[in-house]
Amino acid sequence: MRRALLSWLLLAAACGPVKEREPNDDYTRAVPVKAGRSATGTLAGASDLDWYKVEAPRDGLLSVRLSGIREADWVLAYRGPDRTELKRVDETSIGGDEQLLDLFLTKGEHYVVVSNKNEKASNPSQSYLLELAFEPAPGREFEPNDRATSATELAPGGSLKGHYHPGTNPVAEDLQEEDWFRIHVDTGGLRLLNIDVSEVPKVDSVLEVFDSNGYKVREADAGGVGEAESLRNFGVRGPAEYKLRLRSKGRAGNAETPYQLVTEFLPYQGKLEFEPNDQRSEATPFEADSIGGTIAPAADADWYRLAAATETKVVVRAELTAAAGMDLVLQVMDDVGNPLATVDNMGKDQPEVLTGFGARSEQYLVVTEKTGRKGDSKQTYTLSRTMTPWQAGLEYELNDSSKTAQAINPGESVDGYFAPKGDADFYEFNVYQKGAVLLELTGVLTVRATAALFDQEDKPLAAAEAKKAGESLSLEAALEPGTYVVRLAPAEPAQANVRDKYTFRVRMR
Amino acid sequence: MTPRAVLLLLLLSACAAPKPASQPAPPAPPSPPAAPPNLEVRVSEVIQRADLDGLSYAEVFLDGAPAGRTDVAPRSKEKRWSAALPPKNYAVRLELWLLPGTGEWTRLPDDRQPRERFVRAEAATRAVLLLRRHPSGRYDFDVSKQPL
Questions:
Q1: What is the Cα–Cα distance from A212 to A151, expressed in whole angstroms?
Q2: CB pair distance less than 8 Å for A310 and B135
Q3: Chain B CB contacts of A480 below 8 Å
Q4: Is the pLDDT of residue A8 over 80?
Q5: What is the CATH T-level fold of the domain B39-147, as seen in this structure?
Q6: What pLDDT, on a 0 to 100 scale, did the predictor assign at position A418?
Q7: Chain B residues within 8 A of A426 when measuring between CB atoms
């Protein structure tokens, strides 16, 4: 019985908290404690420093919790095997607990240092409890990862947990606590990377992506406090290395609820945008019949490169589906990025259509959100296109000015569209014999058409207007030999119709 | 001396006498100065690569009849033709010819030639037709008037 009691007492002594032994004011006299155990100590004086030497039996993750005592304003620090301070927390004030989370320890000796900021503290009798939890490391954030150079490795397609803790980083110049991660892609080729960061109460997070030159290439900050963040269709051209930076806006932290950082790594098949495609030089090749994308973050611009052969004239038709909650705009840019046409016929939650556009050897389709203030990585739009050989008798945009008027011969007709909004179509014909010319235009639903005739010196000669939308019109004039231009346009710039064509004809009487 | 001999002697002396110098021909009246051209054509192309900038020129047709050709120069350079013409509204057609890297001068196909346009030539102004061809095949036309 006595032997059993003695055994129990010895066991209790071995498993209980390690008692601090003063003086332990520097590393040479640090109190040894195994990772996974706990320690108790006291604040011998306001300037007391308590060093603990933490022995890690293997690689793992250490979390440290320091209980508060009266009058003490704790500062808790972690130092590496060479005693360099690597992490410090000072989240609470007098009497508050402090925590260090997700510290990655290699097998060996490390140090935890307890100190106090309150110069007036005098509480040598109350004990604090220092708990050192030790867990396996895989699938976890590795603190300290407060800089790009100490980023935690994240496998493409992998996931991990971490904490927005502490809220502030006392050793950083800007006090900003950041978590950095490194994604390295070994294999060549094109891939898409999707990243999701789960929501954490009280935290408004920001996710940023940096390339190997340190340039920020993407940012996801659509969510607010307590909301998730998501990055979609980020294009990766392997081999490559990217860094992610995750931080809390406003420095709110949360030591209780971890975030989950999940990545998805997909082969690129040309059916989705390849971010970043925010400018002409990074435009995603548009080779399939359709391509999907998202407007994220707000003010995102998605560039797609459309190539066409120049041996024959080709006409492009493009359709952009709606994205919920957004008013999307489709633009056509020339080979150096100058705007050629803007399609904004419809409003929020509505599709857009580009009609009858003459394809150049290289041009770009650009999708944006009209206000520049909205983005949603979960709302995917689809941009589809058809390219058909142009045939005589079809409109070939751009024919928006007398300088770019489309040629038509007397006796011929052409089918075209009053689209997009603000469209005006110019046609040019020659008269070789003096005579009367009749210009005829069929009606188009929702559009009240107008026609104006100009001579080769741009002098107006005649004009006509339909009485109401959908009505046809005609215009007759006696003309001398020369070149003439006709301008067809809706009476109101806001009128457009991407579905119904007009037919315009020139006849010599 | 007989009268016949006297007459003969007189004739001989007339032949022997020095002839008077002939009068220089009056100067020709000055020709009127050539009329300045009142119709000018300038043709160029937008070339995106230096290796495509071969030689070219344009044949000029007025009202369906050949009227001349521009100078020969690289495609990107402006090539000109001009003429002094009676005032009239002319149907101007330009026909582009290219010299490929190897081979002979080649006329652009009909469907890639610029279309015919009327340009009015006047006595007191010079009409300048500026034609620029883009890689897409599109043509920019512009007619401006300059005082003579």
A1: 13
A2: yes
A3: 89
A4: no
A5: Immunoglobulin-like (2.60.40)
A6: 95
A7: none
Q: How far A316 CA sits from the closest chain B CA (Å)? A: 14
The label of the residue with tokens 């009327």 reads: B118
**Which residue, A340, A356, A389, sits at the end of a domain?**
A389
**Average pLDDT along chain A:** 92
Instruction: Clarify whether residues A375 and A407 are in a common domain.
Output: no
Of A345, A364, A362, the closest CA to residue A446 belongs to A345
Burial (CB count <10 Å: 0-12, 13-18, 19+), residue A449: buried
Residues comprising chain B, all counted: 148
Shared domain check, A62 and A30: yes
For residues A411-432, give the mean pLDDT.
95
pLDDT at position A14 over 60: no
For residues A301 and A368, membership in a common domain is answered with: yes
Q: Which residues of chain B have pLDDT under 50?
A: none
Is the confidence metric ipTM above 0.90 for this complex? no
A469 CB contacts (<8 Å, ≥6 apart)?
Answer: A443, A444, A445, A446, A447, A448, A495
Quick check: helix, strand or coil at residue A10?
A: helix
Domain that holds residue A67: 15-135
If residue A360 lies in a helix (H) or strand (E), which one and from where to where?
none
Q: Please indicate, yes or no, if residue A234 is contained in any of the structural domains.
A: yes
| A19/A131 same-domain check | yes
Residue ranges of the domains in chain B? 39-147
Residues A201, A289 within the same domain: no
Q: Residue A167 and residue A91: Cα distance in Å, rounded?
A: 7
Q: Which of A152, A150, A172 is nearest to A162 (CA)?
A: A152
Q: Is the confidence at residue A67, as pLDDT, over 90?
A: yes
In a domain, A275, yes or no: no
Query: Which strands, in side-by-side order, build the sheet including A18-19?
Result: A18-19, A38-42, A127-135, A60-66, A98-105
Does residue A482 form part of some domain?
Answer: yes
CA distance A260 to A228: 10
Q: Which of B115, B118, B135 sits opposite A456 (nearest CB)?
A: B118
Predicted local confidence at residue B30, as pLDDT: 64
**CATH number of the structural domain spanning residue A79:** 2.60.120.380
Residue whose structure tokens are 């052409």: A414
Say yes or no for a CB contact (<8 Å) between A457 and B120: yes
% of chain A at pLDDT higher than 90: 76
Nearest to A361 among B116, B120, B136 (CB): B136
Q: Categorize the per-residue pLDDT at A4 as very low, low, confident or very high, splitting at 50, 70 and 90.
A: low
pLDDT category at A129 given cuts 50, 70, 90 is very high
A144 preceded by cis ω (within 30°)?
A: yes
Our count of domains for chain A comes to: 4
d(CA B102, CA A391): 33
Q: Are B72 and B108 in contact (CB under 8 A)?
A: no
Encode pLDDT of A259-286 as tens digits: 999 999 998 888 999 988 999 999 999 9
In the beta sheet, which residues pair with residue B107?
A: B97
Residue A40 has pLDDT above 60, yes or no: yes
Same domain for A300 and A202: no
- Residue with more model confidence, A9 or A355: A355
Residues A71 and A161 in one domain: no
